[in-house]
Amino acid sequence: MPLFPFFMDICGADGLIVGGGKHALEKVQRLLPFSPALRVIAPELLPELEAIPGIAIHRRHFQKSDLTPPPAFVVVSTGDQTEDRRIAALCQAQRIPVNVVDDQPACTFVFPSLITRGKLSIGISTDGASPAAAVQLKQKVDALLPDHTEEILDWLQAKRPAVLQAIPDRRQRFAFHHRLTETCFDLDRPLSEEEFLQLLDAQAARRDEAAL
Predict the structure, then answer these.
(1) Which of 185, 98, 89, 192 is closest to 146 using CA atoms?
(2) Which of the listed residues 35, 41, 86, 124 has the most CB atoms within 10 Å of its CB?
(3) How far is CA 42 from the centre of its chain?
(4) Under a CB-based contact definition with an 8 Å cutoff, are residues 178 and 156 in contact?
């Protein structure tokens, strides 16, 4: 069964990483851009992992008390499958989202192949059927995105108040946002102020014609 792609704000959320090897390092590096408050528990850690600033390091084995209070999520990669599954079971008993590296049956959430461009996040998962396919699909989707996607999204967000003020009708405003976004993506850039106002004028003309 495919997995539902929840998108969550984890900025400042307490994330627990159990393990200090290359898989733990890879997960930490993927999480860092989203600014969680990470704790790493492992008796031994890679120097690259220990050198990452802002992470709380605990050089010891996992203890059940590490789940009190419950963290927002847990990533487990101790290198011992029995221990990994024991920790996963403890998390699941408390309904704590848990990811066990390379052991999908023990996971309650997975890391997708992720594309990020500023405010844009696209996650691709094959439910474990083929990680290689997920990576290749990520590459194909990434190649389809406009080069200036991040700038376009920031500009569109900045224009929302002006659009709301100029177009009170919700349905007309929705249609205008679609037209505005399509124009930006076709041009692969934010619009100039003159171009934006021209589109608003065209929308007003359509509204006036419809009222006749």
Answers:
(1) 185
(2) 41
(3) 26
(4) no
